[in-house]
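Course exercise 7: structure representation. Students receive a sequence record and must write out the corresponding structure in token form. The form below is the worked example handed out in class, using Pca operon transcription factor PcaQ (304 residues). Read each field label carefully; the graders check that inputs and outputs are placed in the correct fields and that the protein name is recorded exactly as given.

STUDENT ID: A-19
EXERCISE PROTEIN: Pca operon transcription factor PcaQ
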Amino acid sequence: MIDRRIKFRHIQCFVEIAQSGSFKRAAETLFLTQPAISKTLKELEDILGCNLMERSRAGVSLTTDGARFLQYAQMALASLQQGLQDLGNDKDTQTETLAIGALPSVTAKLLPAVSKRLSQDPHPFTLRILDGPHKFLLDKLVTGEIDMLLGRMGDHRDMVGLNFSLLYREKISFIVRKGHPLLKDASLEGLKDWPIIYPDRNAAIRPSVDRFMVERGISDLYRRVETVSGAFGRRYVAESDAIWIISDGVAASEVDAGRLERLPFDTDTTLGPIGIVTREDWDLSHPARIFRRALRETVEDLGL
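STUDENT ANSWER:
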């Protein structure tokens, strides 16, 4: 009988490390951190009661036990893949589903291009996208209602049992309509004279924005609406003198098209990591592999 402690992720990680010859490359391929990869391999070795791999300056090498086990692990993965393909052939009218949660900047900037790339993939699946506040989506991830979360890394206290894989970094921008009076004499002190769209308390960018304001002595922005809604922000800013404080990617397409403008503030200190958050115990599905590849290629194409 197979030891029930052995999970698909154990076999998947072991085979990926062996084939790539590197913990780093295996982590990148599986969209995990190197510590997570190492932990998973250690769990497998503890269950099997033997060392499967050895590290050296030259890379990773298999032990005698590791080389023997690799043959069976590869056959197991190949058999499982064949089984999934056979089932898929019998159920042409059904497709697998990948559920993701995405913060507004990713939804606006990255996912349309990723979806366009996925539409050309020969192995279609249903992509279900849920957007909302960061804490809301984290809760959905923990309970298994979504498979992964795309956006800023949360507070370390919220990341227990989760993995984060970096995609790119993004800063906060101050967005206004074309011809806004503050564009002529842009100053942070001038913010208090205009309506503000400020990230709400559940937004991933809220701590960064609060810190940016405090460091510059700005504390009296009382005329504000708190939200990270892209639909609301675009409409309200375009039709008023409001200033929208938001992740740059949310309004990037409108700025690039010349419909909105960025105030020329130096916000480099607000750069934050954008990436993929998954549960540590989640087994990477076939749709997730396809999505991950499309995501990586899109990030490279966009030069993020």
